[in-house]
Specification:
This protein is of the alpha+beta class. It has one domain: Aminopeptidase (3-Layer(aba) Sandwich), CATH 3.40.630.30. Helix content is 35%, strand content 31%. The protein has 5 helices and 8 strands. Strands 1, 2, 3, 4, 5, 6, 7 and 8 form an 8-stranded mixed β-sheet that branches. The relative contact order is 0.16. This is GNAT family N-acetyltransferase.
């Protein structure tokens, strides 16, 4: 397994991974409009657009297959963190997060990060040190938990 910076040639695999996992674990809680909005905003075209806007992505690959992705917006917001179902529970999400976090810290982030977590991912982010800032928020049919990590170590 290898973790590396994502390139534009990876966007189709990234979008497929996100769509597969979102359909199984996340969007069932959303309204129909929320499902459409979430899946549409995480298409290959959108991810390529995010890269062009400066989002930083890293992927985990196993034998050439994308098995995990982490994406950071504005050097401080954890925008995407998805791990293939067959690789969940083995620490890959943490490894991806640590790679992304280290990159942000090296570029001047003082240790403050935010994430809008799906309900099922809250325990994962809590294990990284994130804390909920409010209860569940609904926006355009999409549910999420705003969380923050202040790690000035």
């Amino acid at each position: 397994m290898e973790i590396r910076e994502a390139t534009p040639s990876d966007v189709n695999a990234i979008a497929q991974l996100i769509a597969t996992l979102a359909k199984k674990f996340i969007v069932h809680e959303f309204t129909d409009a929320g499902k459409d909005q979430f899946l549409g905003s995480n298409s290959a075209e959108k991810i390529l657009e995010f890269m062009g806007q400066g989002f930083e992505y890293h992927i985990a690959e196993d034998n050439g297959e994308v098995i995990g992705v982490v994406g950071i917006r504005e050097n401080s917001h954890l925008y995407h963190l998805f791990v293939s179902e067959s690789y969940q529970g083995c620490g890959l999400a943490r490894k991806l997060w640590e790679v992304a976090k280290a990159k942000c810290l090296s570029k001047g982030n003082p240790g403050r990060f935010t994430v809008n977590s799906s309900n099922n991912a809250v325990p994962v982010y809590e294990s990284f040190g994130f804390k909920k800032t409010t209860g569940v928020v609904e926006k355009n049919g999409v549910l999420f938990n705003p969380m923050v990590l202040d790690d000035h170590s």
